[in-house]
Amino acid sequence: MKAAVCVETGSPLVIEDIPIPEPREGEVLVHNHACGVCHTDLHVMKGEVGFPLPGVLGHEISGIVAEVGRGVTTVRPGDRVVGSFIMPCGYCENCARGMEDICSTFFEYNRLRGTLYDGESRLRRASGEPLSMYSMGGLAEYSVTPATAVFPLPEELDLTDSAILGCSMFTAYGAVRNVGDVRTGESVAVVAVGGVGQNIVQLSAVSGAESVIAIDVDDDKLALARRMGATHTINSAQTDATAAVMEITGGRGVDAAFEALGSAVTTRQATEIAREGGRVVVVGIPPAGTSLDADLARIVRRKIQIKGSYGARARQDVPALVRLLAAGKLDLGQVISRRVPMAEAPQTYEALDRGEVLGRAIVLTGD
């Protein structure tokens, strides 16, 4: 099969022919149809997040089940599926207490070692050299993933567009519903409206937020945010965003401020626009070692809560998202601005790094 391999940091992806992997007990082999292009992959490619290389990145997929390992009963060969980037083991302490989004096994084995949970990768070069897996290694024609991270997709949902459900929409859902707890009538601000930020906008609107303020430096992204449900937009390169938010909210600030870039500057901005007793939800992944310089006195005196949000709970939240999409409550298609073949994956990540991708791009990995 063909796979886009990250050979070393600071270099473009390389398209290689490698063997099709095989699923083991409790695992599923997916013939991938599409894979989303995420900024988190870019952090690995640039060496901003440590990860063993060479490896295959890509962590939001849709496709058709090709084969299942022993003991898998939740899906069958031929099923249309979507995969979540967090692949819960189901048995660690965090999974046991209902916190699959911070599954200890996932972080220890996959994010630190690039393997599945027996300590081995399923991907290898033709020479036998192991290739690490970032989640399921979705930038390939086939992927192996634990069955806990694969979910049936109804026929009415587009197989291509549904690829971004497993990270972009999944991450936004966890931030809005599980951590931000956005409620009817509240005010929301989203700082940085890339792929995840756009989905935070639409999920906040669906959750009943009275005002949804999108903040970015790109007018095209702000225009898209309007279409996704933003009631107000602010170009922070042209306007004092804090003053603008205060004007919109009558001087109070917002109930929930979401930071979706992974920057100390934008995270501080989120703390400055939260109202008394408000929530700041940090969603964007920054380079390792990034620290926050914020006015601690304001945070304490105004009882501002700063919360981190990483993904969502796969087995609870992906089925909920699928139901919302099937009911027509959410829109995936508008968020996607580029659909490219595997051969163009390297250039697409370079475009993402230059800030040229509006919303989300996806790589068409299958037939």
From TrEMBL:
<dbReference type="InterPro" id="IPR020843">
    <property type="entry name" value="ER"/>
</dbReference>
<keyword id="KW-0560">Oxidoreductase</keyword>
<dbReference type="InterPro" id="IPR013149">
    <property type="entry name" value="ADH-like_C"/>
</dbReference>
<dbReference type="GO" id="GO:0008270">
    <property type="term" value="F:zinc ion binding"/>
</dbReference>
<dbReference type="InterPro" id="IPR002328">
    <property type="entry name" value="ADH_Zn_CS"/>
</dbReference>
<dbReference type="InterPro" id="IPR013154">
    <property type="entry name" value="ADH-like_N"/>
</dbReference>
<keyword id="KW-0862">Zinc</keyword>
<protein>
    <submittedName>
        <fullName>Alcohol dehydrogenase</fullName>
    </submittedName>
</protein>
<dbReference type="Pfam" id="PF00107">
    <property type="entry name" value="ADH_zinc_N"/>
</dbReference>
<dbReference type="Pfam" id="PF08240">
    <property type="entry name" value="ADH_N"/>
</dbReference>
<comment type="similarity">
    <text>Belongs to the zinc-containing alcohol dehydrogenase family.</text>
</comment>
<dbReference type="GO" id="GO:0016491">
    <property type="term" value="F:oxidoreductase activity"/>
</dbReference>
<dbReference type="InterPro" id="IPR011032">
    <property type="entry name" value="GroES-like_sf"/>
</dbReference>
<feature type="domain" description="Enoyl reductase (ER)">
    <location>
        <begin position="10"/>
        <end position="363"/>
    </location>
</feature>
<keyword id="KW-0479">Metal-binding</keyword>
<dbReference type="InterPro" id="IPR036291">
    <property type="entry name" value="NAD(P)-bd_dom_sf"/>
</dbReference>
